[in-house]
Input
Amino acid sequence: MSRESRTLGAVNVVEAVDLHRTYRVTTGAIRRRTHDLEAVRGVSFAIREGELFGLIGPNGAGKTTTIKMLITLLIPTSGSATVLGHDVVKDARWIRERIGYVFGGERGLYERLSALDNLRYFAELYAVDHRRQRARIDELLSLVGLKGREQERVEGYSRGMRQRLHIARGLLHDPPVLFLDEPTIGVDPVGARELRALIASLTEAGKTVLLTTHYMFEADSLCDRIAVIAKGEIVAQGTPQELKAGVAAGSVVEVEVFGIDQPSVERVLALDGVRAAVVEEHEQRQLLIVQTAPGLELTHAILSQLNGTAVGRVSSREPTLEDAYVQLVTAA
Amino acid sequence: MTRIARIVALGLLIHVKHLSRNAFDVMATTIWPLVYATLAYFMFRAGSQPEALLLASLGATVMGIWSITTVGAADAIQRQRWAGVLELLVAAPTPFWAVLLPITIATSTIGIYALVSTLLWGRFLFGIPLHLEQPVIFVLAIPPTIVSIGLLGFVMASVVVRFRAGWAVGNMFEYPVWLVTGLLVPVALLPGWAEPISWLLAPTWGMRALRDAAFTGGAPLFDIAMCVVLSVAYTVIGAVLLGQFLQSARRRATLSLT
Output
């Protein structure tokens, strides 16, 4: 079933209303000073039943903090949130029985135990009927492609295998709601593609998923709707098409450069009609990506600001979700 | 209740397995008490009290179990935090006391390695006869000793859940508990106020249970009963403290490293 053909439920399964989360930060050894750091500042969104909702933003934007409030690990400083209609602070245990949480990276597993032992332990913690545990574990091992490797210690697993084991762990109790925090981070392209297919199959099975990711193409291909978070605030929300449309009334100029410096980028940014400019590193070369306002031809003006920088291929194209993201995050 | 029992039993099995698979940890657990035992043997030999060598051996064993528990329980929680597992355990719908409890008991269970190595060390290196007056009671006294010490570790480990640097508490209590429970010197030699404190600490009764089962004239069953009573008390205190600390950790965001 494709994303377009899937029918979403009318019920909001996850709802965040004006969520705030402040951390107290202490600095100094002798003269200790504390100050408050607002990690999440008034985040609101709702996720419908069966929806795959993406939360994207740069490092430190507040994605993980938001997820941790929704999965009951953190208490919001203010605001409220519900999962399946229950309050994340008052009904923490009720919610925990019905949600799965998967995060990316190498951590979160007992390294010296086998995958089977890891799954057996978490199956017990999630009250999976002990008579069904083995069958459920077998089913999940097959689903994530670890069947036959389950007796091996996790310390010998590749990153992709660990990530698939994480997903199996999150699905043990067959939760209707899943929170996936950067599940493909650091996984090789083939492994990441398999993981994305797995994630897509979750919503086809009727699960509601909140996904955070850094990869725009991933959000674009998987998510029904996306919220862009920057500096603790939601700066845009909508379908991938709606977000792209926000910058569609403009164009993108890409310039291949060799050894561009920051003052040159700032000069480009200062040009009238330039909305955003970022540099992507590609081994020996860089790619200067400039978003421009509609109706303007700025290629020549951009090139004239790159004094002394060797320039390669120059091209222009339609904006992508990544361009929308860059523009939104840069403006925040 | 059956579910909690299953979780505790499986948790114990899983964590003993996990702890036992680090060869360096097992080596440290086995060798560490031998240092205490060796010192004790030489001290007692110098005092011409060869009959007390077994007692020294038992004292060194309980010292070892306590050290492993007090440092290890706090360290085990900190390791779960480093490994990113602590948050996953808290996020599970199982009451967290039932998750933490087997972790700390697993740490003290590893102390069995210390017990075996210490007794064998004494037997083969120093020729201490392993003559036990009530061998069955001696064996029966081992589980309540280990569990009660593990549960004292559980009370301390609850602090580590809330405070990232709380593992230092484990180190802080290592030597004072040796002293106050009579593992180093008889409690009678300590100031009067120390004795009531020793009654509240599991190593006191665990040591007495092993000693009274090994020698004539004691009441090992009473000591074992005290281990059980303290175990129940530690579980209740630990669970209440943990509930408070966990709520505070969710508010202060100290479950993860960052």
Remarks:
- The mean pLDDT of chain B is 85.
- The first helix of chain B runs from residue 2 to 20.
- The interface with chain A takes residues 3, 6-7, 10-11, 14, 17-18, 21-22, 83-85, 87-94, 99, 247, 250-253, 255 of chain B (CB under 8 Å).
